[in-house]
Structure formats: C-alpha cells, structure tokens
Amino acid sequence: MGMMESLAQLREEAEAKLKSSKSSEELEQLLVDVLGRNGSLTTILRAMGKLESSERASVGAFANNQVAAVGVLKILVPIGMILPISAMFVPESWQLIYGILPMYWQYRALSAILSGEPALMYSLFTFVVSVPWFAATLWLFTKKTNFRNSLR
Q1: Residue 60 sits in the same domain as residue 129
Q2: Which of 23, 69, 70, 124 lies 20 to 30 Å from 78 when distance is taken between CA atoms?
Q3: Of 1, 139, 5, 136, which Cα lies nearest the Cα of 62?
Q4: Would you call 95 helix, strand, or coil by DSSP?
Q5: Domain co-membership, 10 together with 75
Q6: Whole-angstrom distance, CA of residue 83 vs CA of residue 33
Q7: Which domain holds residue 143?
Q8: How many CB atoms lie within 10 A of CB 2?
C-alpha cells in the first residue's frame, strides 16, 4: 500500500473513532494515537524521507490536509451534536434561532415521530436548510483544496 493510501486509510479510521468516541478521554487518546510521538501519522510521515522530492511535496500536502481534517472534525462533531439538543432547554420562542442548523430540524422531526405527530414539515425543513450548508461546504472544499485544478 502506498503512502497516500495509508494516509487516506488512517484518516478514515480516525474519523470513525472520532465519531464513536463518547468522552474527552477517548478523544485525547485518539489524538495521541494519531498525532503523538509514536502515533500512526508520525510513523507514516517518518517514511517520507525515503521518497523522491517531487513525491514528497504532494504527500506532505496530502498529509497536512489529513491532519487538518481530523482537527476540524474534533471540533465540529461535538458542536454538531450538542447544539440541536441544547434547543430543548431554551424557551420555544427562542428555538427559531436554531432553525439555521440542519441537525435542529432532524431533532424536531425525530421528536415529532416519537410523540406521534406528523414529521413531514420538519423533514422538508431539514432538506431546505441542509442544501445551503452543503453548497457552502462544497464551495469551501473546492476553494481550499483547488479540487477543480487537480482534475485537469
């Protein structure tokens, strides 16, 4: 397996562990396992010295993207889970502030289903609110990674 494939596999494993972690101790252990002195990413990057200089630049850029992705996920996953749930603890008149978050509408749809109410409206809101978030994420991704230029 090549270095790029190893990095991609490491990222997938780290994302899976990040999503399944339930405590700050597990998150800290993941950070040590991946980015620590004897972490799996550190081990892979030590092998970069054996690569050609042209290959080293592309692998280094790819590795930096992988590290950034793990860091961003470490921040965004807990926030994405906590914000919609926090809507339960604010007055209903304030809950519309949460309306810009797709996860809030998913929470409302699930809450309606569990209470026996119709959930179609909340499901449609989930879709309508998710589309701009997806478009913005796609735009940022292509801007930051020069994805279109790499396809040429």
Answers
A1: no
A2: 124
A3: 5
A4: helix
A5: yes
A6: 28
A7: 90-152
A8: 9
